[in-house]
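Quarterly update from the structural biology core.
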Amino acid sequence: MGNTTLAALVALCMAACAGPSATGVTGGQPHELVLLTYNIHHGEGDDGVFDLERQARVILDSGADLVVLQEVDVGTGRAGGVDQATELGRLTGMHATFAEAMPYDGGSYGEALLSRWPLVAAETWPLPATAGREPRAAVVAVVEPPGLGWAVRVIGTHLDHLEDEELRVAQVEALLGYLAPSRPHSGLPTVLMGDMNARPGSGPIELLQEAGWTAADPDLGPTYPAIDPVRKIDWILLGPRSPGSLSGAEVLFAPVASDHAPLRATWCLP
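Predicted structure, tokenized:
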């Protein structure tokens, strides 16, 4: 796609997302895909209560079409053996897939992805880990929003959380390797979302930006903790050469349901 064509597509998208279209189409419909990233703290709220219905309401109230979730338990003892990815899919009426980062407490722990539309493909990308650190992974799915005319790829991840950012940088480098032109689905428009455990200006974020990824909200307020947040560590980014633009980024107020605030944005596509 040439620079002139891409610029024209971005201009069209910005106009489309400025308000209702001439046909009355608003957010949540093809051409305007509502995105959400949400760390659900293995289903446990800030009050110590496991309540997936409460978290499902947060997701539904956001109006999201495509959702990535971090800290998801499947069949663990602490979550009462519940498959949280499948259950949140049922509660929201969305299609779900899960990517295991590691076995944990008799089950699995990792990332999940929910989609308003069926998944064309789904896979797990393991990320680098070192001894004594939690393994990490990315959940990846391809969907075909009706009326759009092409498929899009959604990636959700959760990077290492410890203070030293060396491993987070290595995990971003691994993500960029998975996104190489020789890999499957490399030509699809792509968004990357998740709990990066990385603040603006940090090594992992600078590495993504240098590779052409554009943040929905580079100057938006903090996302963690959910009550009186002080750190911006959750991100939505649009891939290089992906048509369209991200707009309307917003940190949602959802205290108690989890220890992170959800982050929402709209992907405006031609």
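Confidence is low (pLDDT under 50) at residues 1-16, 18-30.
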